[in-house]
């Protein structure tokens, strides 16, 4: 194992933790109702890890530890059988791993054990970003007027994820399934993106699931 | 608005995702101490400003955050090719004039026939 200093970023349960959108829910509200065409849901407190290094070395490690092979093609996004763990290609030597909250530190430790002295870097970015789910029949329309990337199904099939500009903010846009889109946004931009989504989605009717 | 092909992402993206980073293929002198003031000044401050084919460095700032090179025509703004760092351009000012001359010759031949 390498001599990198690691620590579990999760605090004791005694200390209350809040999602990046807790402030937004209080100030901007969370509309609920029937007759909506757009559904928003925040998947807060997930474990986000950034893996950097050579594709071959990392591929062996994540196959062994996580049971998913590393997506080698640009813009690829792969999930495990349960759909809860995913790896996304970000750049030729960088991948984003998202796992259920609490799993990221054990995963990081296991990966470090497996990788040993190989040349790589693992950073826990769980505290820095959050995941927003956008679904509903108007989801595509909303994305079309917000994202500069071409989100037409012919260009954006299921299993693709890109880093692009969402309402002037840098976000990762992913499509894990036919009807569901995911936005990985910076924590500091979460309130802005949430309010943008509420505003842009008001014409369709928005339902926020908490 | 450019629609730029990122050689690392393998697809065209909007210009908004990129930043220009100036002239490409500038090599830092191996031994700065042995440079004359003029050589060092040239390396540090002076850049080409050609009319025609120009090689530039760009970064895919919002996408993969990799640097790469673009060969661009400064008159027509046309992007002739993009290629990864460390690679050499296949289109240069020299072979561009050659191909234009060749095209002119073949055109003349066409007229003659």
UniProtKB/TrEMBL annotation, chain A:
<dbReference type="InterPro" id="IPR027266">
    <property type="entry name" value="TrmE/GcvT-like"/>
</dbReference>
<dbReference type="InterPro" id="IPR007375">
    <property type="entry name" value="SoxG"/>
</dbReference>
<protein>
    <recommendedName>
        <fullName>Aminomethyltransferase folate-binding domain-containing protein</fullName>
    </recommendedName>
</protein>
<dbReference type="Pfam" id="PF04268">
    <property type="entry name" value="SoxG"/>
</dbReference>
From TrEMBL, chain B:
<dbReference type="Pfam" id="PF04267">
    <property type="entry name" value="SoxD"/>
</dbReference>
<dbReference type="GO" id="GO:0008115">
    <property type="term" value="F:sarcosine oxidase activity"/>
</dbReference>
<dbReference type="InterPro" id="IPR006279">
    <property type="entry name" value="SoxD"/>
</dbReference>
<feature type="compositionally biased region" description="Polar residues">
    <location>
        <begin position="91"/>
        <end position="100"/>
    </location>
</feature>
<dbReference type="InterPro" id="IPR038561">
    <property type="entry name" value="SoxD_sf"/>
</dbReference>
<feature type="region of interest" description="Disordered">
    <location>
        <begin position="91"/>
        <end position="113"/>
    </location>
</feature>
<dbReference type="GO" id="GO:0046653">
    <property type="term" value="P:tetrahydrofolate metabolic process"/>
</dbReference>
<protein>
    <recommendedName>
        <fullName>Sarcosine oxidase subunit delta</fullName>
    </recommendedName>
</protein>
